[in-house]
Amino acid sequence: MPVSEYSIADFLKEVKNYSPEELLLWSLRTFEVPNVVFASSLGAEDQVITDMLMNINPHPVICTLDTGRLPEQTYRLMDTTREKYGFRYRVLFPDYRDVETMVSNSGQNLFYESVEKRKQCCAVRKVYPLRRAFKGLSAWICGLRKEQSESRASVGKVEWDDNFGLYKINPLCDWTNEQVWEYLRKHQVPYNTLHDHGYPTIGCDPCTRAIRSGDQSRAGRWWWESAEHKECGLHSSEHAKVREPNGIFKRA
Ligand code: SF4
Asked: Is 67 in the pocket of ligand 1 (CB under 6 A)?
């Protein structure tokens, strides 16, 4: 059957037993570089995917968001990773006009004032730049895992992402945290040193802190908010496993 006639159910059936590496290879072949991109936040999962991708295809498109508020350790990891694998990130910045307007109106640290203002900041610094980068593409790859939070428990290997209007591939969706770290150590993959200091996940500097023993892994993200708000808008909690794109997949 031509790819253009595949539904999400067809895709899921085809990739059901694929390992993360097989799923990555499948996605590169099905959607074709440069129409499929990997969006890395340089978290532990994304470092695993970077290593896998570089073993599969030496010229993947890997983009990353520079929100302007990242911890210094993340910038250092960006350089270390780039040097180790010999590729260039496509670094996405927010539109300076959006940032100027937002900060002029609401201050540098508006995110502490309300959920709405926090989401506004995430939209300006994360969602809009990715939306711009994804325009015209067929699929993106990301490091979501079911285990990470309740809102991610239904993540599938392939989904239709209504938020951005393209397919979303989640190669590590079934992996545990232990598998992620086993891979990083075994393959000597560079990782963010903040992970060694109580940060299971790392986002922007003012919105991430270390967790205490017994906390959920994402407890340190936007810690002043209640658990149901802990997404930045890049990953809709209503995962689109059963939804189909508006029309069928078309090769670019
Ligand atoms: S994580 Fe914090 S600083 Fe970063 S974009 Fe969201 S609200 Fe803004």
From this structure: yes
Closest CA to 244 of 12, 1, 2: 12
What is the pLDDT averaged over residues 134-147? 96
Mean pLDDT of the region 170-180: 97
Tell me the CA–centroid distance for residue 84 and ligand 1, in Å: 28
Digit-coded pLDDT (tens) for 8-39: 999 999 999 999 999 999 999 999 999 999 99
Measured from the Cα of 208, ligand 1's closest atom is 1
Is the CB of residue 92 less than 8 Å from the CB of residue 132?
Answer: yes
Domain boundaries, the chain: 3-95+125-196
Cite the active site residues: 232
CATH class of the domain whose range is 3-95+125-196: alpha beta
Percentage of residues in the chain having pLDDT higher than 70: 90
